[in-house]
Amino acid sequence: MSVLVAFSVTPIGVGEDVGEIVAEAVRVVRASGLPNRTDAMFTTVEGDTWDEVLAVVKDAVAAVEARSSRVSLVLKADARPGDGGRLESKVASVERHLSGGAA
Question: Which intervals hold domain Thiamine-binding protein (predicted)?
């Protein structure tokens, strides 16, 4: 099984500059050892099971909750049978199509 979860966790009521607090969530994800990528809007993490990936999300939310009394979470998931590596392969497929290469 391959489970990809893209999520965004945002502290509420702490002002506009939330980068320092959001960084706490990203630290949790990176410390998990699971493949991950952070961009301007989401952090995506990949694992072999729902439990493994959602535990990381839960811990990331807890890290933000430690610094904010209210937290917003947006989550999108993609699960399918098969091996991992989709964090990289899905992007590589799009890049191949953009460069005119075969799928």
Answer: 5-95
Measured CA to CA, the distance from residue 37 to residue 11 in angstroms comes to 20
The predicted-structure confidence for 42-96, as pLDDT tens digits, reads as follows 999 999 999 999 999 999 999 999 999 999 999 999 999 999 999 999 999 999 9
What is the edge-to-edge ordering of all strands in the sheet holding 43-47?
Answer: 36-38, 43-47, 2-12, 70-80
Q: How far apart are CA 26 and CA 89, in angstroms?
A: 22
What is the residue extent of each domain of the chain?
2-98
CATH number for the region 2-98 comes to: 3.30.70.930
Strands 70-80 and 43-47, bridge-based pairing? unpaired
Please report where in the chains the tokens 């009521």 appear, as a residue. Answer: 13
**Nearest alpha carbon to residue 37 among 96, 94, 88:** 88
Over range 12-34, report the average pLDDT.
Answer: 97
